[in-house]
């Protein structure tokens, strides 16, 4: 053997050295783009690692503060939304609500399951782009009805049947963009509800058809108040970008409740460039929203709902401590229903879904194929066979369990901080584990007094 | 995001009623802009060689108690410009002889927190935080006299609610502009103008539009040409209403997202964001009422 | 027929609307006159009864918004979003209408004697709109179902991203939007036009109109279509 074939091992590694700028995922991106001439569309939210609630921890009580007894002493989770102008505010038993997701993106069974779970938990569920289904109205005691740019299925009867109206300006996954529903999900019922031809690749508008800007929004809110005889709370939902200004303006325009959706928020179908490159993390968005409410002296008058990547009771507790009055959960709830699980339950049996994941070219744990409508566990589908895989009662039980777990975790942490009410959590109960999280959440880095950028504006 | 109003009187015998006719117009735009309000009024021109500047003292420590007399005495002692003043609380109009720049430089050096609102031979400008009704009351808007005016009520979008960020914005002499909408490239416009020696006083997007137009006018463009260049340079949503010494001009962006309505009679041309502000005008029931088209320039002369 | 008058120089829009939200039985056949509207917003929104309303002057934003069953006449002009999201009934504007007239209307008939501003019939979902004058740019944007009749001219990008709605234009079309195309007028079209023009009280020959409908090339993602999505 000659020496030339006996390169040291690191020579071989050098031959396979990956470029940081053109890493494997960038190469895949370019190869895909050059093959199709069309941007990638997918479901779920941002996949990149972002500063998040995980980067915060609670300073629970020990000697300077006294904890409440975890299993006995009262810790209230009651939450009231819409106290500013509405004659009939929304009263919740838990500050954890279910985010707006459309019938179309989700099946009618899923919408029904969400309504049942929310009702059992004393919280709200929310319609989405495409209107209100009779299933979700009947199963939801308290239902928030969205008014979106597309106005698909939007009608005054459903406005009157709703318990609150949410004017949607944007979504954390795609602030500044409209919704999408690919043709395979536009089945006859979806098409009929949206007044669209069956099977079209539906692109929603990004701006409302009859108003632009906060001065017009003021009038739009008044219209909805007039229509509902000033009974129902009006929420305004924004995707988190210029949060401080947007929240201020939503309040100026007369919102009862402001919903801020951070960039980890999900979607059933959106351009990847939007999902990964627009908006700010939820952690940063909460504090900007709270600052806007504080500057307007609107804390406790206009309520703040935060959403975007909230998964656990700890996330909820941290969002509340940072100043949210409630949270909204979308993706976590879908996962409770079985999203990305390797099996589904149908007819009292557990069935493997692995072959269906394989057919989509993915596997349980990595699936983001909501846009295809071929959800192996029957959650984000309109397919007549697949949708049977999610049975409303079974789904409702899972979602209820999930929300119950989250609520218990929330009160566990609140009690440990010595609070008899989860709304008494405050930013001072938190410290950050990373400099980034400390700067965004404006809480000190653990073990220090240091809040990066503090007092620098 | 705001309400705008404009009024141009066609008959000199009506000039004394300008303020009285305008105040309900401004108050009609309360809901569109409750944060601050402002008004630029164009009256009889000063004699050749004289100029006036409007000043605001609300940002100084003394505020409405500012010692205007001390300032005018110092100005006359130093520059010999025969300045005299009319004051109204936070607000003063200095009339003087000769060019404006040395006077403005002197005032800035004397008290840098004084805000110079406008300069020219016809224009007086008032703006302050507060509702339209409060600001109108504070500065006796109903008693204003002149041939035409441009007014504004502001709902702040991105820049803060302060008197200097209220509209109208002015640049150069006898030119002002108000804006309803939101520009999407104000910082780029600003960075293009600053190296040309054009100074900005606020971070407001409207100021960028105003200084752009004034720059074009100073470079020799007529109003039409300047507005054409504005269509190319400015991005975003806007309805602009501008006042010059003898004209009102209006443009809307190609998307015409922000409203505007015009009413014209033999006596006046009145412009507002909404009809609500025109409803009280005399003879409105027989006026020609129309919506200005997008990307069109409308110019009305006194 | 019962007649009732609301004078908005003395009474509030709230009082008017609260009355108009009374029980459909009590409102049926009633005629309500609205005096001194003076551009007030949200006049007669959310009516859910076969009542007739005459607004004696200029209306502000969203006049007769989300109308159901009612017959609303605006004797002056209407601001942004007149008859937006109408479900049924009729709204008649005798002057001009501003932007977004009939936006997202699911049903009913909107007649505008004068011109309409930009985005007339945007996101139309089944209503009919007849404009005696011209319409501004982006009219019929993403219109999904329903019919628009434009007796004057149309601005830029008419019918951009049109779905199944059909637009008839008598005058000039400044430009068609993406996926909108001119199609030959069929007999069914002239019958429909004659009916709509008659309902609007406008005397035009149906055969003088051009038909604009969707080319349906944007119904599915298609990289080769060379379109901006």
Any descriptors?
heterotrimer, B: 302 residues, alpha+beta, Glutamine Phosphoribosylpyrophosphate, subunit 1, domain 1, Alpha-Beta Plaits, 2 domains, five-stranded antiparallel sheet, globular, C: 229 residues, alpha/beta, Pectate Lyase C-like, eleven-stranded mixed sheet, 11 strands, 11% helix, 23% strand
Which helices and strands appear, and what pairs or packs with what?
The complex is a heterotrimer of chains A (about 450), B (about 300) and C (about 230).
Chain A: H1 9-15, H2 24-36, E1 41-42, E2 56-58, E3 79-81, E4 90-92, E5 96-98, H3 108-121, E6 125-126, H4 134-139, E7 143-147, H5 156-161, E8 164-168, E9 180-181, H6 188-194, E10 202-203, H7 213-227, E11 234-239, H8 243-252, E12 257-261, E13 270-271, H9 272-277, H10 282-295, E14 303-307, H11 313-322, E15 326-329, H12 331-336, E16 343-346, E17 349-352, H13 354-359, H14 392-416, E18 430-432, H15 435-441
Parallel strand pairs in A: 5-15, 6-7, 7-8, 8-11, 11-12, 12-14, 14-15
Antiparallel strand pairs in A: 1-13, 2-18, 3-4, 9-10, 16-17
Helix pairs in contact in A: 3-14, 8-10, 10-15, 11-14
Chain B: E1 2-9, H1 18-28, E2 36-42, E3 50-56, H2 68-79, E4 84-88, E5 91-97, H3 100-110, E6 115-120, E7 123-129, H4 132-138, E8 148-154, E9 169-170, E10 176-183, H5 186-193, H6 205-218, H7 223-233, E11 236-243, E12 247-252, E13 261-264, E14 268-272, E15 288-290, E16 297-301
Antiparallel strand pairs in B: 1-8, 1-14, 2-7, 2-8, 3-5, 3-6, 4-5, 9-10, 10-11, 11-12, 12-16, 13-14, 13-15
Chain C: E1 3-7, H1 13-20, H2 24-27, E2 31-35, E3 52-55, E4 71-74, E5 90-93, E6 109-112, E7 125-131, E8 145-150, E9 166-169, E10 180-183, H3 187-200, E11 210-214
Overview of the molecule:
The complex is a heterotrimer of chains A (457), B (302) and C (229). Chain A has a single domain, classed as TIM Barrel, CATH 3.20.20. Chain A is built from 15 helices and 18 strands. Chain A has helices at 9-15, 24-36, 108-121, 134-139, 156-161, 188-194, 213-227, 243-252, 272-277, 282-295, 313-322, 331-336, 354-359, 392-416, 435-441, and strands at 41-42, 56-58, 79-81, 90-92, 96-98, 125-126, 143-147, 164-168, 180-181, 202-203, 234-239, 257-261, 270-271, 303-307, 326-329, 343-346, 349-352, 430-432. In chain A, strand 6 (125-126), helix 4 and strand 7 form a beta-alpha-beta unit. Chain A is globular. Chain B has two domains: 2-43 and 136-301, Aminohydrolase, N-terminal nucleophile (Ntn) domain (Glutamine Phosphoribosylpyrophosphate, subunit 1, domain 1), CATH 3.60.20; 46-121, Alpha-Beta Plaits, CATH 3.30.70. In chain B, helix 5 runs parallel beside helix 6 (205-218) and helix 6 crosses helix 7 (223-233). By secondary structure, chain B is α+β, with helices and mostly antiparallel strands. The two termini of chain B are 28 Å apart. In chain B, 25% of the residues lie in helices and 31% in strands. Chain B has seven helices and 16 strands. Chain B has helices at residues 18-28, 68-79, 100-110, 132-138, 186-193, 205-218, 223-233; strands at residues 2-9, 36-42, 50-56, 84-88, 91-97, 115-120, 123-129, 148-154, 169-170, 176-183, 236-243, 247-252, 261-264, 268-272, 288-290, 297-301. In chain B, strands 7-2-8-1-14-13-15 form a seven-stranded antiparallel beta sheet, with helices on one face. Chain B has a five-stranded antiparallel beta sheet with strand order 9-10-11-12-16, covered by helices on one side. A four-stranded antiparallel beta sheet of chain B has the order 4-5-3-6, with helices on one face. Chain C is of the alpha/beta class and 229 residues long. Chain C has helices at residues 13-20, 24-27, 187-200, and strands at 3-7, 31-35, 52-55, 71-74, 90-93, 109-112, 125-131, 145-150, 166-169, 180-183, 210-214. Chain C has an eleven-stranded mixed beta sheet with strand order 1-2-3-4-5-6-7-8-9-11-10, with helices on one face. The interface between A and B is medium-sized, with 12 and 19 residues.
């Amino acid at each position: 053997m000659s020496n030339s074939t006996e390169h040291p091992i690191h020579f071989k590694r050098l031959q396979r050295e990956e470029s940081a700028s053109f890493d494997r995922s960038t190469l895949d991106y370019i190869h895909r783009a050059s093959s199709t001439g069309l941007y990638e569309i997918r479901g779920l939210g941002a996949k990149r690692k972002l500063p998040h609630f995980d980067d915060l921890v609670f300073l629970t009580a020990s000697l300077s503060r006294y904890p409440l007894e975890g299993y006995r002493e009262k810790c209230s989770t009651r939450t009231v939304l819409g106290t500013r102008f509405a004659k009939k505010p929304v009263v919740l038993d838990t500050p954890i609500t279910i985010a707006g997701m459309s019938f179309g993106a989700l099946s009618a069974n899923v919408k029904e399951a969400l309504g049942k779970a929310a009702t059992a938990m004393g919280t709200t569920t929310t319609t989405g782009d495409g209107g209100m289904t009779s299933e979700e109205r009947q199963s939801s005691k308290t239902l928030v009805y969205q008014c979106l740019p597309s106005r698909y299925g939007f009608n005054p009867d459903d406005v009157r049947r709703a318990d609150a109206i949410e004017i949607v300006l944007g979504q954390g996954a795609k602030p500044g963009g409209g919704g999408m529903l690919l043709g395979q999900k536009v089945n006859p019922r979806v098409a009929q509800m949206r007044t669209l031809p069956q099977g079209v690749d539906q692109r929603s508008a990004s701006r409302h058809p009859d108003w632009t800007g906060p001065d017009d929004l003021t009038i739009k809110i008044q219209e909805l108040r007039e229509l509902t005889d000033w009974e129902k709370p009006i929420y305004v939902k924004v995707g988190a970008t210029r949060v401080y200004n947007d929240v201020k303006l939503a309040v100026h325009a007369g919102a009862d409740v402001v919903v801020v959706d951070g960039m980890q928020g999900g979607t059933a179908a959106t351009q990847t460039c939007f999902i990964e490159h627009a908006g700010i993390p939820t952690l940063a968005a909460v504090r900007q929203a709270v600052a806007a409410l504080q500057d307007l002296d609107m804390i406790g008058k206009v309520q703040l709902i935060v959403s975007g990547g909230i998964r656990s009771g700890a996330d909820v507790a941290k969002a509340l401590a940072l100043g949210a009055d409630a949270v909204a959960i979308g993706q976590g709830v879908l996962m409770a229903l079985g999203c990305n699980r390797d099996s589904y339950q149908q007819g009292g049996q557990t069935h493997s879904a692995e072959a269906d994941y394989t057919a989509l070219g993915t596997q349980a744990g990595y699936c983001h194929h909501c846009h295809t409508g071929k959800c192996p566990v029957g959650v984000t589908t309109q397919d007549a066979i697949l949708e049977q895989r999610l049975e409303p009662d079974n789904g409702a039980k899972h979602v209820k369990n999930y929300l119950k777990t989250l609520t218990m975790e929330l009160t566990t942490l609140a009690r440990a901080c010595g609070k008899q009410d989860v709304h008494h959590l405050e930013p001072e109960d938190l410290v950050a584990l990373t400099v980034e999280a400390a700067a965004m959440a404006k809480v000190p880095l653990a073990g220090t007094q240091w809040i990066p950028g503090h007092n620098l504006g | 995001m705001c309400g705008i109003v404009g009024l141009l009187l066609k008959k000199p015998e009506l000039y004394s009623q300008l303020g009285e006719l305008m105040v309900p117009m401004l108050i009609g735009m309360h809901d569109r802009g409750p944060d601050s309000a402002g008004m630029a009024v164009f009256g009889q021109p000063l004699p050749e060689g004289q100029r006036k500047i409007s000043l605001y003292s609300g940002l100084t420590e003394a505020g409405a108690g500012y010692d205007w007399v001390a300032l005018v005495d110092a100005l006359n002692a130093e520059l010999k410009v025969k300045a005299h003043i009319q004051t109204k609380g936070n607000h003063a109009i200095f009339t003087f002889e000769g060019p404006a720049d040395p006077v403005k430089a002197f005032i800035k050096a004397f008290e840098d927190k004084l805000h110079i609102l406008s300069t020219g031979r016809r224009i007086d400008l008032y703006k302050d935080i507060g509702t339209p009704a409060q600001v109108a009351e504070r500065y006796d808007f109903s008693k204003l006299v002149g041939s035409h005016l441009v007014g504004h009520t502001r709902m702040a979008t991105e820049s803060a609610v302060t008197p200097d960020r209220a509209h109208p914005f002015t640049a150069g002499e006898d030119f002002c502009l108000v804006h309803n909408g939101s520009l999407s490239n104000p910082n780029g416009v600003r960075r293009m103008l600053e190296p040309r020696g054009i100074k900005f006083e606020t971070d407001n997007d409207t100021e960028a539009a105003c200084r752009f137009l004034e720059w074009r006018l100073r470079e020799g463009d007529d109003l039409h040409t300047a507005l054409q260049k504005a269509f190319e340079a400015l991005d975003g949503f806007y309805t602009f209403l501008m006042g010059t010494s003898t004209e009102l001009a209006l443009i809307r962006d190609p998307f015409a997202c922000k409203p505007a309505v015009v009413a014209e009679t033999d006596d006046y041309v009145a412009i507002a964001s909404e009809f609500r502000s025109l409803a009280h005008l005399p003879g409105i029931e027989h006026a020609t009422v129309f919506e200005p088209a997008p990307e069109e320039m409308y110019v009305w002369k006194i | 027929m019962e007649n009732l008058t609301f004078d908005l120089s003395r009474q509030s829009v709230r009082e008017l609307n609260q009355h108009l939200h009374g029980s459909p039985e009590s409102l049926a056949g009633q005629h309500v006159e609205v005096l001194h509207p003076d551009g007030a917003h949200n006049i007669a929104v959310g009516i859910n009864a076969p009542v007739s309303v005459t607004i004696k002057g200029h209306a502000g934003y969203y006049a007769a918004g989300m109308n159901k069953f009612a017959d609303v006449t605006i004797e002056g002009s209407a601001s942004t979003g007149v008859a937006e999201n109408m479900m049924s009934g009729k709204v008649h504007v005798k002057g001009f209408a501003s932007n977004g007239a009939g936006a997202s209307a699911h049903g009913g008939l909107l007649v505008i004697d004068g011109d309409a501003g930009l985005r007339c019939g945007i996101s139309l979902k089944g209503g009919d709109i007849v404009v005696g004058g011209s319409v501004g740019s982006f009219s019929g944007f993403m219109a999904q179902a329903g019919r628009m009749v434009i007796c004057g001219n149309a601005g830029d990008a008419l019918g951009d991203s049109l779905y199944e709605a059909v637009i008839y234009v008598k005058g000039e079309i400044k430009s068609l939007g993406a996926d909108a195309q001119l199609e030959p007028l069929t007999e069914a079209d002239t019958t429909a036009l004659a009916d709509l023009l008659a309902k609007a009280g406008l005397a035009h020959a149906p055969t003088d109109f051009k038909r604009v409908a969707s080319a349906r090339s944007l119904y599915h993602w298609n990289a080769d279509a060379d379109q901006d999505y």
